[in-house]
Amino acid sequence: MAGKQITVGRASVSIGPELERALDRMISTTYAEIKREVESITADITDHAKANWYQNVRERTGKTGGGIDYEMRLTPTHLRGIVASDTRATYFVHRPGPFSKVGRRVDGAEFAQVMQEYRRTGRVPDGYSVERFTRTRRPVGVFRLEPPPGSAPRDRKNLWKILVLDYGRRVVKERLPDIDKALQAAARRVAA
After folding, report:
1. Domain boundaries, the chain
2. Cα distance between residue 58 and residue 51, in whole Å
3. Packing angle of the helix pair 167-191, 17-52 (nearest 10 deg)
4. Global pTM?
């Protein structure tokens, strides 16, 4: 009788050729179903990271968020969907902190108002900053300070952790029933 011999500890079982073919068919269809689900989850995480990356940062150069992609790694024992970036700097990007501000140079009319206030009180008004003072204590290079644009929280957290790792864990937990359904469907097809 040709077939496989499976041994676990001191117990062994022989599997006939028909059962062996059925098991191989079940494993191959199950593997394909699970691969589709894992790839779908990985693609969703990648799309989420790409869509939300530049809403959370102040500088939009395209260097860090543009290189985010995913790949499937298949081995005989593992199937992994990996979200990665081709730029090492991507892993170190943080949201702006709670005290970060963006400085914008003021135009002539606004500079005149700031200087009028400075002459009257002896200090630059709140919400403005000065690049430097001359020897006579005259402000040069006046900037208006504004909070960074966007509605993202300013908590100085690592973007990769928030947009890929934490979101990925949440998506995997939500999609585990889909993987379970794919496994059950494959097992029903083989059993029928």
Report:
1. 4-96+150-191, 102-146
2. 15
3. 150
4. 0.64
